[in-house]
């Protein structure tokens, strides 16, 4: 419980003082995870100011097992053989266990589906995983079921010979109907959870884009549907690149900014503006995945239809082009 000497302290400072056995970074993680409360109220803000008499409770979750466990999580399997599995990942599914997501991930689902032999492929932390999609990005992923497949797919990703195409809905519309975005991408020096374009350092990142549809007035579209193809695969690459050129993804809470909709002139426009401003995730879907099969020695190519939320978003936005 806080007393007069703690008045005005930041909550993270007070917790660090009261719980010296915990590092400040660990306390920050627990705060963000909703483990700190005062009365019936959960407090996640490290900058919360402490008042005399405040009492705080900290509930430390049990330590998660180091080795991922198989779970019965439904998967939409597009293709599977003895070497690999291709799945259509839904938005909201985290790819591998990490802080804040110890289970309920794609890795847990793959172990549950393919068996515990999966744990020996490429390391226990991320078995079978050769690439990833962000939690709220939907679409196609391939995972390896043998070491040979793991090595082959990893080499193809490293050599940039994997075909990957994404559909995205962005705010506004790029000036050019197609183009190449080439930059260096690395961790933001101001926020280590974000990636950013860097003038020096970082890793080379190349994204090719093409505008497929524009929604709204031709002279100043409200939003656009674009196709992006990756030549490299950096963390958050498409999200960072589209923000860099001034057209962030609709619904992206980390890199995007919600834009005010103009006053709707009819029910169709109102539905469109509501759909885009309330879209709950980044509007990004991995719809093409192509690679060389490690054993069959032929190219496999898969296409994924838009999930219902993405399709509804595009459908609503098309109302802006109706007479």
- Overall 3D shape: globular
CATH-assigned fold name of the largest domain: Pseudouridine synthase
**N→C terminal distance:** 64 Å
User: By helix and strand content, what is the structural category?
Assistant: alpha+beta
For the record, the CATH class of the largest domain is Alpha Beta
Give the full name of the CATH homologous superfamily of the largest domain: Pseudouridine synthase
Computed over alpha carbons, the radius of gyration is 23 Å
Report the uncertain regions.
none
Explain how this protein is built.
With 323 residues, this protein is α+β, with helices and mostly antiparallel strands. The protein is built from seven helices and 13 strands. The protein has helices at residues 11-18, 24-32, 106-114, 147-158, 237-244, 267-277, 308-317; strands spanning 36-38, 41-42, 57-58, 77-80, 84-89, 138-144, 163-171, 178-187, 195-198, 203-215, 223-230, 284-292, 299-303. Strands 4, 5, 6, 7, 8, 9, 10, 11, 12 and 13 form a ten-stranded mixed beta sheet that branches. A three-stranded antiparallel beta sheet has the order 2-1-3, with no helix packed on it. Helix 6 (267-277) crosses helix 7. It is globular, with a radius of gyration of 23 Å.
């Amino acid at each position: 419980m806080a007393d007069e000497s703690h008045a005005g302290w930041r909550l993270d400072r007070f917790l660090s003082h009261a719980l010296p056995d915990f590092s400040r970074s660990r306390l920050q993680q627990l705060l963000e995870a909703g483990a700190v409360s005062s009365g019936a109220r959960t407090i996640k803000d490290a900058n919360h100011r402490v008042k005399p008499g405040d009492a705080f409770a900290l509930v430390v979750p049990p330590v998660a097992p180091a080795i991922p466990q198989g779970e019965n999580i439904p998967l939409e399997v597009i293709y599977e053989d003895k070497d690999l599995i291709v799945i259509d990942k839904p938005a909201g599914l985290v790819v591998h266990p990490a802080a804040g997501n110890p289970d309920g991930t794609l890795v847990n689902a793959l172990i549950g589906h393919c068996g515990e032999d999966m744990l020996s492929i490429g390391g226990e932390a991320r078995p079978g995983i050769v690439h990833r999609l962000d939690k709220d990005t939907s679409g196609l992923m391939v995972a390896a079921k043998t070491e040979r497949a793991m090595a082959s797919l990893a080499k193809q990703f490293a050599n940039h010979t994997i075909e990957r195409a994404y559909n995205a809905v962005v705010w506004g519309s790029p000036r050019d109907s197609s183009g190449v975005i080439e930059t260096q991408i690395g961790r933001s020096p101001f926020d280590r959870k974000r990636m950013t374009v860097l003038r020096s350092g970082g890793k080379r990142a190349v994204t090719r884009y093409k505008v497929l549809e524009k929604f709204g007035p031709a002279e100043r579209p409200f939003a656009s549907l674009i196709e992006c193809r990756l030549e490299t695969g950096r963390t958050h690459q498409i999200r960072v690149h589209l923000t860099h050129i001034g057209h962030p993804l609709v619904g992206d809470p980390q890199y995007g900014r919600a834009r005010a909709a103009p006053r709707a002139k009819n029910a169709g426009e109102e539905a469109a503006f509501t759909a885009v401003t309330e879209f709950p995730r980044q509007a990004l879907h991995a719809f093409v995945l192509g690679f060389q099969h490690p054993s069959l020695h032929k190219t496999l190519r898969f296409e994924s239809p838009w999930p219902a939320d993405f399709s509804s978003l595009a459908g609503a936005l098309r109302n802006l082009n109706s007479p």
